[in-house]
Structures are given as structure tokens and as C-alpha cells.
Write a structure and sequence with these properties.
Mean pLDDT: 94
Oligomer: single chain
CATH architecture: 3-Layer(aba) Sandwich
Order of helices and strands: HHEHHEHEHE
Strand content: 5-15%
Number of helices: 6
Shape: globular
Number of domains: 1
Structural class: alpha+beta
Helix content: 40-55%
């Protein structure tokens, strides 16, 4: 499969078959993630693969976090639905930036580096998603985990910044392409529009 085909075929998959994934397949997706470009070659990523009861615990924390938000009169968005997807997918990969330390938030130079790291981690996640397409797998980039960020990180024993979760598994659906703006709509040549 050519990269252009993987880019066009990639979909956000929200339904998965119950078949487990081999560590070899997950490893291939993670190998692709680690080949992403990163600012100053910092490679600011760490991946934690969760299966079975570990996934269920993450989902439980997300539902609890969403319910706490709702109890305070806030909306929890799609957090509960994402928790269900995490339970259904054979594997979920928690993505961390181990270099991110909230205690350094007041340091403006560090804050700039976090922005650079965030872009680098995003590139790693995109590589993982595209490799999943090549392997015939479905994936979903999940940010709803932030409703329980502190609880999840404490439970996993991680102090770095939780960046995202990626559900991974054999797809049980074939989502249709979502509408996309053309490149012409979002591109400007020079200063004048």
C-alpha cells in the first residue's frame, strides 16, 4: 500500500471485533510511530499498551470523570461513548510525553518546548494510524481521556503529560469518508488573500 492510499483510507473506527491483536502487530504500529519527526530529535513519546481489565479500568475512570463534570453542570461531550470504545477495542495505547512536567508550566521557554513536543507526538500518532491502515487494523485517536487525566496518570504511575489514547483493533465497521475542505479552500498564496 502506498502512503497516499493509507492517508485516503484512514478512518476513525468506533466498532471493533472481539479478536485480540498480536504483540507483533501492535509492535509494528508502534515502530511506525517512533519513526516520526520530532523537534531537536527529542522523541518525546512514551507508549503504554493496555488490554483486558486495564482497559476496563481506564474506561471506568473516564465515565466517573464525565459524571463529575455533569454533576457540576458541565457537558462531558463524547467521553462516555469513548470509554465504551476503549472497552470494546482489543488494545488501547496511552500516549505520554515523559518530558512534560506541570511544575515547569511557569517557565516560558519550557512552554514553547511543550508546543514543539505536542506537534512531535501528533506526528507519531499519525504515523501509528497510517500504519494501522496498512496492517488492515482500525484505530481511533481519543482525547476524551482528559476527563480523567489525573486519575489515569496516577493509576498508571506516570508523571509526564498524558497526550492521547489510541484504540486499536480489527474493525467491525467501514465508516464512510467524512467531508473534507479542499486544499484550495484552506490555502492562501502570499500575504494577500
Amino acid at each position: 500500500m502506498k502512503i497516499g492510499e493509507a492517508i485516503v483510507q484512514r478512518r476513525s473506527v468506533r466498532k471493533y471485533k472481539a479478536e485480540p491483536l498480536s504483540r507483533e502487530l501492535i509492535g509494528q504500529a508502534l515502530e511506525a510511530a517512533t519513526q516520526a519527526p520530532s523537534g531537536k530529535n527529542a522523541q518525546p513519546w512514551e507508549f503504554i499498551v493496555l488490554e483486558g481489565e486495564d482497559k476496563a479500568k481506564i474506561a471506568e475512570m473516564m465515565v466517573s470523570g464525565a459524571e463529575q463534570l455533569e454533576a457540576m453542570g458541565n457537558k462531558s461531550g463524547s467521553a462516555k461513548r469513548s470509554a465504551g470504545i476503549i472497552q470494546e477495542a482489543p488494545a488501547v495505547i496511552m500516549v505520554y510525553n515523559p518530558r512534560q512536567n506541570k511544575a515547569d508550566k511557569a517557565n516560558p521557554v519550557q512552554e514553547v518546548m511543550w508546543s514543539v513536543d505536542t506537534q512531535s507526538v501528533g506526528a507519531a500518532i499519525q504515523n501509528l494510524l497510517l500504519k494501522a491502515v496498512e496492517l488492515g487494523l482500525g484505530s481511533l485517536w481519543i482525547c476524551d481521556i482528559f476527563v480523567a487525566e489525573e486519575q489515569i496518570s496516577a493509576w498508571l504511575g506516570r508523571e509526564g503529560g498524558l497526550m492521547a489514547a489510541v484504540a486499536l483493533g480489527w474493525p467491525a465497521e467501514e465508516p464512510i469518508p467524512r467531508p473534507r475542505k479542499s486544499w484550495q479552500e484552506v490555502t492562501h498564496w502570499g500575504r494577500g488573500h
